[in-house]
Amino acid sequence: MRKFRISEAAKIKGVSPSTLRRWESEGKLIPERTASGHRRYDLSQLLGVESYKAYTIGYARVSSHDQKQDLARQKEIIELFCAQNGWEHEIIQDLGSGMNYSKPGLKRLLRLIT
Q1: Are strands 39-42 and 32-33 parallel, antiparallel or unpaired?
Q2: Distance between CA 98 and CA 77 in Å, rounded?
C-alpha cells in the first residue's frame, strides 16, 4: 500500500502538518519512519481502519429487454470472479443504451466512485 508524506497526509486529514506532528507526540497517530527519518502515513491509518473498507463494484449492462438472459450471465460471471478472488463486492446492473447516460445504475456507480 502506498505511503503518504506528511504534506499529503495533512491534506487527506484536512489538517496542517503541525497538527499531525502534535498528534504523533500525543500518541494519537504514529507514522512509519524512513531510513532518513521522514514520516510516512498509511491511508488506512489516516482514514481510520473502520472507515476505510475496500470493496469491488461490478457493472453489467445490456441494451434491450431481449438480452435479459445475457445480463443475468454477465452478473453471474462478475460475481464468480469476485468470489474467486475473495473480494467483497456489489453488482450494479442496467438495461439500456450505452449512449444513455441517465441510467439509474450508471448514476449510482458514478456516485460511489467519486
Answers
A1: antiparallel
A2: 20
- Reply yes or no on whether 63 is catalytic: yes
The full length of the chain comes to 114
Catalytic annotation, pick one of 7, 36, 44, 63: 63
Each residue's pLDDT tens digit, 16-30: 999 999 999 988 888
pLDDT above 90 covers a percentage of the chain that reads: 56
Sign of the alpha-carbon torsion through 28, 14, 109, 59: negative
Are 98 and 79 in the same domain?
A: yes
Number of domains within the chain: 2
- One domain, residues 72 and 90: yes
Task: Identify which of 11, 78, 16, 21 has the alpha carbon closest to the alpha carbon of residue 47.
Answer: 11
